[in-house]
Amino acid sequence: MNATTGAQKVVVIGGGPGGAEAALAGAQLGADVTLIERVGVGGSAVLTDVVPSKSLIATAESAAAIRDANALGVQFYVRGETGRPHKPEVAVNLQAVNRRLLSLAGQQSLDMKAELERAGVTIVQGEGRLVSPSRVVVSTGKKGTDFDEFEADTVIVSVGASPRELPSAMPDGKRILTWTQLYSMDDVPEHLIVVGSGVTGAEFANAYSNIGAKVSLVSSRQRVLPNEDADAAEVIEEVFKRQGMNVLSESRAASVEATETGVVVTLEDGRKVEGSHCLMAVGSVPNTKGLGLEEAGVERTESGHIKVNRVARTNLPSVYAVGDCADVLPLASVAQMQGRTAMFHALGDAVSPISLRAVASNIFTQPEIATVGWQQKDLEDDIAQGDIQVVHLSQNPRAKMMGIEDGFVKLFARKGSGTVIGGVIVSPKASELIYPITMAFENRLTVDMIAKVFPVYPSLTGSIADAARSLHRIVD
After folding, report:
1. What DSSP character marks residue 223?
2. Phi, psi of 238 (to 5 degrees)
3. Cα-flanking dihedrals φ and ψ of residue 279, to 5°?
4. Is this structure's pTM higher than 0.70?
5. CA 429 to chain centre
6. Which pLDDT value is given to residue 158?
7. In terms of C-beta distances under 8 Å and separation of at least 24 residues, what long-range contacts does 61-68 make, across chains too?
8. What is the pLDDT of residues 196-206, one digit of tens each?
9. How many helices (H) and strands (E) does the chain have?
10. What's the chain's Rg over C-alpha atoms?
């Protein structure tokens, strides 16, 4: 407790989505908040991960829209010297794209910093480390002093995660790349080999394919996106193959080597795949080493993630952890909710423990995959009981008008009551379309309640209403 102001002293280590949200919540409740960040407010999520990657994906969507416009009757021509029209080629200036997305990321970081400063948060540039549950040391690099020390009633750790690196495929930032290093490329890669078919690998493989790169996707599993809805993953894999992507299923990479002109990926069965560049998308590791957690007594998992409960509290009453460094779902939205929850709990405000089942998630492929609540595998494994209804977008009039050929709405309703217990949407902008299903799940609405709401006609949301109407059951 700050004896001068009477305000609780809070130190937040890490200024990513979770840390920044925690700091804002603390300032809102009158706490004396200090935020320590080593690279810039927003952390890797804003500077090297979510903001730049989704900006790249938006560019790829634009390129794909131009490419596919002919199917809607839109044709592009340039006039030749003889006056006869010639179809132009769609080209992506990757240097310009990367400049734009890094500029957007930098501006978002500055906007977040300004918002924190307006709220009264003290921002310290440096690397923070716990020396006790109530004391943080910061390496600032200032002249005349190497360290600053901060006493705290509460410490919130939000240091994020970094790309996992394999000894047999060490990134060099030129030919072998992590997803944080992609933005240094000046030209669209001639042949990008993506190792890893999870969310990150699938998103980047799709994006670079859409901007003109030849792409090979090395997947150790039977299908891409192995942890997602099987029907959704099947749609995405079919789209990938239709685009010309070389999907190497059940193929594990043994090593990746850079050559003078490109890369060679050697698979465990001895096959070799040659390309110009390789993206390693094999997961991430929490940035918890050298943070003083072990010395302070904070418990971690074998993977190095910080163990937390549903209000983001560690085994130490005064220490909380949020975001990708904690053993919870690694999503920016979850990190933000954890940050608010942790701060409210620490300062004695009312909180509701986080329910991960209610978290909507999205994969930014094209089409996108959005999910919330219980899923089909849960029903098949008898973990939850419910009815399933699928409405394919090929039946939707708006989708036909827009030239959308792939995708569906899948709705899950509890047997008997008809309460919405989950959903999957595969569609362009599924990240926007999933919201009504999330609202229904969170507020325990029934399919009949959804069916009574008037959707716009024609609209993609009409398929949600169609699925709900199809799940109506006569009550005995």
Report:
1. S
2. -65, -40
3. -105, 125
4. yes
5. 15
6. 97
7. 61/210, 61/366, 61/428, 63/90, 63/92, 63/210, 63/211, 63/212, 64/210, 64/366, 66/90, 67/210, 68/403
8. 999 999 999 99
9. 14, 25
10. 24
